[in-house]
Amino acid sequence: MDDDIGRVVIVTGAGKGLGAAFARAWGRQGARVIVNNRARAGEPSSAEAVAAEIRAAGGDAVADTHAVDAPGAADAILRTALDAYGRIDAVILNAGISGPAAKLGALVEADLRALMETNFFATVALAQAAMPHLEASPAGRLLFVSSAAGLHGVRGRSPYAASKGAVNAFALTIADEMRRSTVRTNVICPYAATAMTVADGEPSDPLMAPGNAAAMALHLTSAACDLNGQILMAGGRRFRRARVMEAPGASAPDTDPAWIAANIAAIGDMADAREFVGAEAAFADLYADARRDSQKGRA
Predict the structure, then answer these.
(1) 271 Ramachandran zone, left/alpha/beta (phi>0; psi -120 to 50)
(2) Is 96:145 a contact under the CB 8 Å cutoff?
(3) Which residue from 88, 106, 168, 291 has the highest number of Cβ atoms inside 10 Å of its Cβ?
(4) Which CATH code fits 2-242?
(5) How far apart are CA 91 and CA 271, in angstroms?
(6) CA 124 to CA 90: how far, in whole Å?
(7) Are 134 and 177 in contact (CB under 8 A)?
(8) Domain-wise residue ranges, the chain
């Protein structure tokens, strides 16, 4: 990864947990790191602590203490990077909150809106503000930190799952929109024991330490990585690709819903499932199959 020495990387939510692990890993790799984490009144800056740790180990890092969901935060975070290093090569959009645990009947709208402000709207704002700078880089990389909850759901945390599902859809769309540029956009869904997932912040199994998911984040934001529009799972030094797929399905001969009931197994058969780049491609494929089967029915 010699091409990444001197690379300028912003990591949000990097005062602890996964973000800190990503920032430290890039610091060891020779990048210049902007360690972002909100400052809390009366508490030492966790962002400055991680940045100081990177510098003490021989790396180059500066702290940014803006809360990602504050008005004007996106431009302020970018200004910290540009003032310090003059350019931006990669952004790891890690900042997020889990929100209160609650099932559907106990959901509080204010909690849902607060969660979406941090996990989705603030993420969108920083991605949008950073894009011109990433386009100016010879190898701009945008990495959205999501969750398996956004793919599969998670009991008791539907707002969190919904926010991460929104992040996934947004990231895949940006990847498609920017595919002809030099910018590469991907998603990482890390598994790790952090303050968000473990009550005392200490992993019961060291294998699930945040640092064991960091290698994938480094690869996806490196100059050498040409992947685009991918969702990668990472945890315990094990890595997987995830993808959204559609079964081939079957065409009904008429509009009778009884046909659906009789053929639901065939409709759901995933043996020859396919993935698509963008919803337009998925629709075009379904429409082509529907037209073909309709014409066969009239033959």
Answers:
(1) alpha
(2) yes
(3) 88
(4) 3.40.50.720
(5) 37
(6) 15
(7) no
(8) 2-242, 257-298
Q: Tell how strand 90-93 and strand 184-190 pair up.
A: unpaired
Q: Which single residue is written with the structure tokens 């790799």?
A: 29
Measured in degrees and rounded to the nearest 5, phi and psi for residue 280 equal: -60, -40
**What whole-number distance in Å separates Cα of residue 35 and Cα of residue 61?**
7
Each as own residue / partner, the long-range contacts of residues 158-163 (CB below 8 Å, 24 or more positions apart, any chain) are 158/103, 158/104, 158/107, 159/99, 159/102, 159/107, 159/111, 159/112, 159/115, 159/116, 160/98, 160/99, 160/115, 160/119, 162/116, 163/96, 163/115, 163/116, 163/119, 163/120
Q: Dmax of the chain from CA atoms?
A: 77
Distances in Å between the Cα of 264 and the Cα atoms of 49, 254, 255, 272, 274 are 56, 15, 14, 16, 18
Q: What is the pLDDT along the chain (299 residues), one digit of tens a residue?
A: 667 899 999 999 999 999 999 999 999 999 999 999 999 888 899 999 999 999 999 999 999 999 999 999 999 999 999 999 999 999 999 999 999 999 999 999 999 999 999 999 999 999 999 999 999 999 999 999 999 999 999 999 999 999 999 999 999 999 999 999 999 999 999 998 876 555 544 556 888 899 999 999 999 999 999 999 999 999 999 999 999 999 999 999 888 889 999 999 999 999 999 999 888 889 899 899 998 988 886 54
Tokens of 140: 């701009």
The residues facing 36 across adjacent strands are 64
Q: Which amino acid is at 83?
A: D
| Type of residue at 70 | A
